[in-house]
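Lab notebook, bench 4. Continuing the backlog of folding jobs that were queued last week. Each job is logged with the same field layout so the records can be merged later without manual cleanup. Today's entry covers Dehydrogenase, a 658-residue chain. Filled in by technician R.K.

JOB TYPE: sequence-to-structure
TARGET: Dehydrogenase
LENGTH: 658
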Amino acid sequence: MTGRPARVVLAGAGGHGHWHLDNLRRLSATGLVELVGVCDVAPVPAEALAGLGTPEYSADLPGLIRRTGAEITVLVTPIHTHAELAVAALRAGSHLLLEKPPAPSLAEYEVIAAAVRETGLACQVGFQTLGSDAIPFLRKLIADGHLGRVSGIGVAGAWNRPAAYFGRAPWAGRRRLGEVAVTDGALTNPFAHAIATALAVAEAEQLGAVAEIDVELYRANPIEADDTSCVRLTLPSGLVITVAVTLCAPGRVEPSLLVHGEAGRASLVYTRDEVEVVPATGAPARTTHARTDLLENLVDHVRTDAQLLVPLARTGAFIQVLEAVRRAAEPAEIPERLQEIRRDDTGEPTGRVLPGVAELTARSAERLALYSELDAPWAPAEQVLRVAGRDVAHYRWRVDLPVTASPRPHLHPVRTLGGVAVSELAPADHVHHLGVGIAVADAGGVNFWGGRTYVPGAGPTWRHDHGRQRHLRFRRREADRFGEHLEWVGPDGVAILGERRTVAARGVEGAAWLLDVTFTLTNLTGAPLAVRSSATKGRAGAGYGGFFWRAPGSATGRTVFTERVEGEDLVNHSHAPWVAMTGTDPDGRDWTLVMAQHGHVDPWFVRVREYPGFGPALAWERPLVVTGSVTRRVTTIVADGRLDRDASAQLFASTTER
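JOB STATUS: finished
OUTPUT FIELD FOLLOWS
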């Protein structure tokens, strides 16, 4: 068996299959392989098989494998067919070279993995860059401490793809075909190597190796998937990987990986296997490394049990990232006014360019930053939550506001499913009220609420004591949820509190949706930290501080009630399980908010007459002293119409049961 060529079937001879045909020609000439079969849904032109003998042609992959006795199948079919055909090939008795990405979803990846375990056969994934000696070279460079402590790895890739690229197949540029996942975007297909190579250099390749993933997807072309995108990966060690790519550059810039170390940096142009090491002191050094062909390695593995270079398990972390991309919000459309559209003589678009995007990807790698953190005009610093296909809330996480407003991320505008606005930003009566968010009047002597600070004996007083909440990073962003890390920073720039925040939106029965917010505040000072409201300092009824919802001041007919009482005087400082607020907008449209606490229950702070706003109060009778962490969860039903007490109670009960 070891003396004769390995018998190979190629599944998918079009598109990227041409590259594999050329590689098979090369290896056939050396006597390593013999192409015994071609599986495709369309006939393969004779010229495409020149030099490869007379392989059998069939559209039946398992039958073809069995008839030809193929030991290896090279699978180069559309992404969404990988799982079905990979399992069929393995169960027919063939080892597998599976083109990247191995699957369009985590679920289908696990189907393939189960078949690999069941059959005991090899599945090599076609990440050719992982066959490069540059990767173990970089790993050793890092492990030996030549770069010092490594804080992050940034990858940049900027190519141009014409309009025809996205029309090359029915699945091209698609996120899904009906209910079937495709996940053919810039990050997961043409630049899949960028992610896989960075994970390999970081030695974080197995499923579960990535602790947090944050994705931003954009599109300039009229497609479903992304053509310009970035991702930030955080490993359990704290090391950060960013990948920023585009298919809308003016031309081709070879993708490169930049390793940030305290004692130097190293870069890898993975398409050329070129490494440049730039120490903090001394001269740069450049090396070029060999690469092992993955089909050759697979044959060697089958013949001699040599180590497989890219087994399926080595792509587990990549699939984690792909799954995050698949589940992320739909790519944001980049306005045509921010594009350069190339056209043919008839005026039809032939390609799209984003001015300055190649430089932007390079800056991302340098700063380990996402597009929205680099002031890209088409990447605003906001996250849109969607329910039932409608935008219901905008989360603004980088805000340009006066320091006296205690700048902080917030939700605004928030709307009912019917489009009625139920939040207000910086109203004239209290310019430091910022939609829906989390704020406290006093944490360790710092004003994180905005406006004047209440001073016993003097009343509300302007002081230079305003802090701000600083967004650090997102953990996960999807169409209806996100997680976030923040720091609460004092006027001296020192972080007082760390915060872990999760925000989610989902539909509920009737014309309503539910906002679910959980936040955990962690004391960073090393000593007990007191959180105070003005009420704890002697100002009667002013227990505000914590989760707070500022409703529109223009609303008329404002009411507030619980399951037992009604009116501001009775609801304020009460301990009811839920509070409902209703109003009517200037166009005569009614709305209702039903807010509830889960777990620890704080007294309610409520205003209706002066302005409409409410939320649980973290500290009322006495300061809340934080030594470690405190967690609160608040849900709010956002409904069209004016609900009464019974209807509000029923909605509260239905959402609490879930």
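OBSERVATION: The chain has three domains: 6-129, 132-287+317-373, 382-657.
SIGNED: R.K.
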